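Two folds, back to back.
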Amino acid sequence: MTQALDSETVKPFKKRRNITLTIGLTLVGILIFAALFAPLLAPFDPNAQEMAVRLMPPSASHWLGTDGFGRDLLSRVIYGARPTLLLVSLILVLTIPVGMLIGISAGYLGGWSERVLMRITDIFLSLPNLVIALALVAMMGPGLMNGALALALTSWPPFARQARAETLALRRSDYLAAARMQGINGLRLMFGHILPLCLPTAVVRAALSLGGIILSAAGLGFLGMGIQPPTAEWGSMVAEGSKVIFDQWWVAAVPGGAILFASLAFNLTGDGLRDRLDTRNAD
C-alpha cells in the first residue's frame, strides 16, 4: 500500500520535470535555429540604415519596429542570437575543462596541492565577475574573444569546487578501490574513472549558469565593452534603446525580451537536467 502511494506521489513530479526539460530544450532549439538560419529568417538586412523610418513603432512592415537608425529590430534581434551563442560557447569551452581539471586534481591529490589549488579558487570566487571582466576588457580592448576570456576567467571556480567535492566523495569508494586493484592510478584513474562520474553535474551546472553568463555578456555590450557596432548584439541594442526608452520603448524592450527569452530557455533546461540526472529521483 505504501509503495503504491509513493509511486502515485512520484508520478506528478516526474511529469513536471519532463515538461520543464521539454520546454527548456524547445526554447533552446528555437534560439539555435534562429542563429543558424538568421539570413533566411530575417526580413531585412540587420545593418541597413533607412533614416526615413527611424524609431517607427511595430507595424505590418516592421513587426518589432525600428531603431534610431531605421534598422529593423526583428532582423537585428535574430542576428543578435549569433554573437550571444558564440560568446556563451567560447566561455563554456574555456571554463568547464579548467574548472574540472583543478577540482579533480585538488580532490584526488589532497595535501598541499589541494590547499594551493582551492585557495586560488577562493581568490577568484571572491572577485565580482562583471567588474573584473570590465577591467580585463578595458585592458585588452573590446571584442568577442576578449569578452569571452574576461568572463571565463571568473566563471570556472564553481565548476572546480563542485568537482573537488565529488572527487572527495569518490576517493574512498569501492568503485575506485576496485580500479586501483587492477593497477589503474594517476591520470588514468582521474580522467578515465573520476571525470565521467563528475560530468553529469558539470553539465547541469553549465546549463544553470548560462543564464547568468548571457546577462554578463549583455552587460559588457550595454557598457560598450563587448562586440562593437554595427554588429547586432542584444546588450548594445538595449543601450541604444535606453536613450529613448520613455518615448520609443520598443527599441530597448525588444532586445531586452530576447535576453529574457535566452536566459529563461537555459534556466528551464538546467532545472530539467538537474531533476533528470539527480539519482534521488530515479525510479
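---
second:
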Amino acid sequence: MFNALILTQEGKSTLANVGQLQVSDLPEGEVLVDVSCSSLNYKDGLAVTGTGRIIRNFPMVPGIDFAGVVVESSDKRYKAGDCVILTGWGVGENHWGGMAEKARVNADWLVPMPEACDAEKAMMIGTAGLTAMLCVQALQAANIQPDSGEILVTGASGGVGSVAVTLLARLGYKVVASTGRAEENSELLKSLGAAEVMERSELEQDARPLEKQRWAGVIDTVGNKVLATALAQMNYGGAAAICGLAGGFALPTTVMPFILRGVSLLGVDSVSCPFEKRQKAWEQVLALLPESYYQQAGQTITLEQVPEFADKIVKGEVTGRVLVKL
C-alpha cells in the first residue's frame, strides 16, 4: 500500500483526499516508479480545486510532474534503479500522476535524470522551468539577442515567470518583470535578475492597435488583455513566446503588430515536446540556473497540504515553485 492524493467527484464538486492505493490499482504502463517528489503547478491547482475542467474521468491522482527511481520496467531504455523525470503528456489529467508515492507510466514520457541533478532540484524546475527554457530558446531562435532591447516577462511571480526571469538575466538580457503583486514580490524578482518590476494593471488597460514601441521580446504566461497590450508595444521585428492563459484564453488584438511591425507570435508547448528537444532543454536549464535559485524561488509542502496550496495558486497567492515531497 502507498499514499496518494485522490480526486473524486461529488455532484459538480471535486473532492481531494489523501488515501491509500496498491500497485494493482495503477493504470497500465511500461515503467513503475517510486516517486520522490512532485510539484504543484497552476494546472494542478485547477485540477485539485475543480476550478477548470482539467479532469474528465474520476477517480484521478493529480500531478503533472514527478521525479523518482524506477522499480521495474518492461522497456529496455530503463531499468530498476534508474532516476527519471516526467513532465507533461497528460499525466495528472487523463493518466494518474505524480502526487502519489508510486506511479506507472509509458516509457516514452520519461527523461533520464541529467547528471548534477536530483529529484528535488528537478521538481523545483519541473514543467514550469522546462516551459520557461523552451520560451527562451524560442526567442533566441527568433534572433532576439541581449542587445536587442528589453524583454517583458508576464506573470513573473509564478513558476514559469520566475524561472524565465532568472534564465534571461543569466543570459545577459534586460528583463522587466510584470506581476499582479509588484510591491510584495519586487525584492524577490530583482534578486532573480529583473532590472525592473511593473504592476500587471499597467498592461490590463484596453490597448490601441499599436502603441509606443518598447519590447524586443515577450515571454507571456497570462494571455488576454495583458498579451494584447504587450503585442501593441512590441519593437519592430520583435517576438513574443506565449505559453499560458492565467488571465484567460481570449486575445483581443488586431493584425497590425504583425503586418506593420513584423512581430512574431511563437506558441510554446511543453506537454508533448519531443524527447530530443525536451532533453536538450533540461540540460540547458540545469546549466543556467544558479544554486541560489533553488533557495530563493520555491517552497516545499506535504501531500496533505496540496488542497490548501492548490486553492492559493489558483487565486494567484503563490510565488515561485511549490515542491511536493512524497
